[in-house]
Specification:
By secondary structure, the chain is α+β, with helices and mostly antiparallel strands. Helix content is 54%, strand content 12%. The chain folds into two domains: 6-168, Gcn5-related N-acetyltransferase (GNAT) (Aminopeptidase, 3-Layer(aba) Sandwich), CATH 3.40.630; 178-359, Up-down Bundle (Four Helix Bundle (Hemerythrin (Met), subunit A)), CATH 1.20.120.550. It is built from eleven helices and seven strands. The chain has a four-stranded antiparallel β-sheet with strand order 1-2-3-4, sandwiched between helices. The chain has a three-stranded antiparallel β-sheet with strand order 5-7-6, with helices on one face. The longest helix has 37 residues, at 170-206.
């Protein structure tokens, strides 16, 4: 999926935008003469496609938003009947799809994302077929064919295309829904962790909350870094202790050892120890290097990152066996400050090594 595109379900408030997108779908050809919107939607064959939208419970639409949250495309489908239908009508069980992308957003994969979204939605509701109508010269035809739509007839010069959908069990649909919710929760946790890490770097540099002087000697700076490393060491000790406690009190694991032996729960504890060890080693290297080469009035970043490490590991340990979303937030609070500090160090080092090439 295009990382800059977000899809949300359409609502009744999106009717003006859907009308705009239907207009774009009608006049899809670049450079073609466009009639006024009001004149177009006075024609029954176009007006009926948007009239009373969302008053039917089966009316469905999805809106694509860019990174600024602005709508850039839409896909929708509607059921028709033998008495009231469009030229692409198949039967009352087959909804007809419409799709359009804002001209400035075309060519970036938005259409494919929207089509996959509504196809997945239809599968989850056990829709057997989807239909649409497209001019054969329209580039969108290639997209539809790549998704499995086949040409089944004509309406004047346009093609009527149909996609047969495989049946998806209710269990599979529910599992997919839960997976999607979990992925969103993980992404949200990662986003929160990144913003906190960014605030730690910026706040530590510009605010200097611990009031470290600009002329603090190197031994004192290193002493600060070493002292705050007690926090990662403490949580590494906890992780090791949890594993040892589990092995001691579990009859199945008390006689086993090594990172690749033990019950499933023991392996989870071992993974937690390994992850915490990796994070501790990275933090130790980054904290010490930061204290060594960065200005001493930037040293506040190190204890702030250590505090974030502690909060992150606490959440990580508490949620490790229960919630993926909580575990993701805990991981990012531990990892992202170290990562951003490392990136800052790399930039400074590269500038010190090669900055004269640009300044000269």
């Amino acid at each position: 999926m295009n990382p800059s595109i977000r899809i949300r379900r359409g609502t009744i408030t999106d009717i003006p935008f859907l009308k705009e997108m239907l207009y774009e779908a009608i006049f899809w050809k670049s450079g073609s003469e466009r009639f006024p919107v009001e004149q177009v939607f006075r024609l029954p064959q176009f007006a009926k496609q948007i009239n009373e939208w969302h008053e039917r419970p089966t009316d469905t639409s999805f809106i694509a938003l860019n990174k600024n949250g602005e709508p850039v495309g839409a896909v929708w489908y509607r059921y028709w009947s033998d008495e009231d239908h469009t030229d692409a009508y198949i039967d009352h069980k087959t909804p007809e799809i419409g799709i359009a992308i804002h001209p400035d957003a075309r060519g970036y994969g938005v259409g494919r994302v929207l089509m996959n979204t509504i196809i997945d939605y239809a599968k989850e509701r056990e829709v057997e077929r989807l239909s649409l109508m497209v001019e054969p010269r329209n580039y969108a035809r290639q997209l539809f064919q790549s998704l499995g739509f086949v040409h089944v007839g004509n309406a004047n010069t346009a093609w009527i295309m149909v996609l047969k959908l495989p049946k998806v069990s209710k269990i599979e649909a529910e599992e997919k829904r839960q997976l999607s919710e979990t992925q969103f929760s993980v992404f949200r946790g990662m986003g929160i962790g990144f913003m906190i890490a960014y605030a730690i770097i910026v706040g530590g540099i510009w605010l200097n909350p611990f009031r470290f002087p600009a002329d603090l000697p190197l031994p004192d700076r290193l002493a600060v870094a070493i002292q705050v490393l007690l926090i990662p060491a403490f949580f590494l000790t906890i992780a090791i202790g949890l594993l040892a406690s589990h092995r001691f009190f579990d009859p199945k694991d008390i006689q086993r050892s090594g990172l690749l032996q033990g019950s499933e729960r023991a392996l989870l504890f071992q993974t937690m120890v390994q992850n915490t060890l990796e994070q501790t080693i990275l933090a130790a290297i980054v904290y010490l290097v930061w204290a060594t080469i960065m200005p001493s009035h930037w040293l506040s970043v190190v204890p702030l990152a250590a505090v974030s490490f502690g909060f992150g590991r606490t959440i990580f340990f508490i949620r490790y066996f229960t919630q993926t979303r909580g575990r993701a937030l805990g991981f990012t609070l531990t990892f992202y400050p170290s990562l951003l500090m490392l990136l800052c160090l790399m930039v400074i080092w590269l500038w010190q090594q090669f900055g004269n090439l640009f300044s000269g």
